[in-house]
Amino acid sequence: MSHAIRIHETGGPEVLRWEEVEVPPPGPGELRLRQHAVGLNYIDTYHRGGLYPVPSLPSGLGLEGAGVVEAVGDEVEEFAVGDRVAYAHGPLGAYAEVRNLPAERAVKLPDAISFELGAAMMLQGLTAQYLVRRTHRVEAGDTILIHAAAGGVGSIVVQWAKALGATVIGTVGSEEKAERARTLGADHVIDYSREDFVRRVGEITDGRGVRVVYDSVGRDTFLRSLDCAQRLGMVVLFGNASGAVEPFNPLLLAQKGALFLTRPILAQYIATREELDEMAADLFAVVSSGQVRIDVNQCFALREAAEAHRALEGRRTTGASVLLP
């Protein structure tokens, strides 16, 4: 019998249960995957806590992982038993030893990339890809601001934007994380626990502001993020680590400099097979070339997912984290 983490109600980390589950043969268009590593992401806490409702309860949890194909269902032609694969964006159920997965969600994992790295890089890496290559296409000479620059997505954005020739300003919450952001290549690092990041961005940019702000923090930073963008600049709100942003009058965007605001989600960027393959190939290329290094800094046993969530929500993690079945 296989095991998985499941929730029967929403709430804190204590609602995560390690349970025996039966995995049926894969249906048409599905793969059965023996997982070697599972990605840990902040969105998992949103599903667990109810901010992002799950389809029904009880429910699995988790959106990304990597492993080996054990069986394929009818109508699956692009994968075979024994293939190494990775995936992102569900459906929910990655917190499992074995699972079935729609084949359209998976990509083949290059031999040079480990299962741990594959599980750690897909959701955060594909998010970073759309942020710097599609939502706002970062170009040489851009000055950007990335909040949580030492976190999973932030650490990738810092490196990728630097490789593209941008000047990168990052915010962090401690000196330890500031040092990590500098190591990753950030040109300017602001510790928001000690400094006013709006004032510092103004000083760094001589009052001009930045071309784009990438904000995954949400409520605690959003309104001040608007103050960091230059005239006709863009604010990309792609997370809610501190809570959801309160409703506001869109006229505020005009008053702040006719700003562009977007709230992207990965699902809309990988809605087709072609988009997923193209974005994954771009991600694998920058990682394989060494332009972007993804550090798996924390490994937790899958059965200890509750402790992993506590560490993540307590901002006690840096870089990427994985759960090991």
Could you describe the 3D structure shown?
There is one protein chain. By secondary structure, this protein is of the alpha/beta class. It folds into two domains: about 1-120 and about 270-325, Medium-chain alcohol dehydrogenases, catalytic domain (Quinone Oxidoreductase, Chain A, domain 1), CATH 3.90.180.10; about 140-265, 3-Layer(aba) Sandwich (Rossmann fold), CATH 3.40.50.720. The chain has ten helices and 16 strands. It has helices at about 40-50, 115-135, 150-165, 175-185, 195-205, 220-225, 250-255, 265-270, 275-290, 305-315, and strands spanning about 1-5, 15-20, 30-40, 60, 65-70, 85, 100, 105-110, 145, 165-170, 190, 210-215, 230-235, 260, 295-300, 320-325. The strands form three sheets. Strands 3, 5, 6, 7, 8, 15 and 16 form a seven-stranded mixed beta sheet that branches. The protein has a six-stranded parallel beta sheet with strand order 11-10-9-12-13-14, with helices on both faces. It has a three-stranded antiparallel beta sheet with strand order 2-1-4, with no helix packed on it. Helix 2 (about 115-135) packs across helix 3 (about 150-165) and helix 2 (about 115-135) packs across helix 9 (about 275-290). The longest helix is centred in the middle third of the chain and has 21 residues, at about 115-135. The protein starts with a strand and ends with a strand.
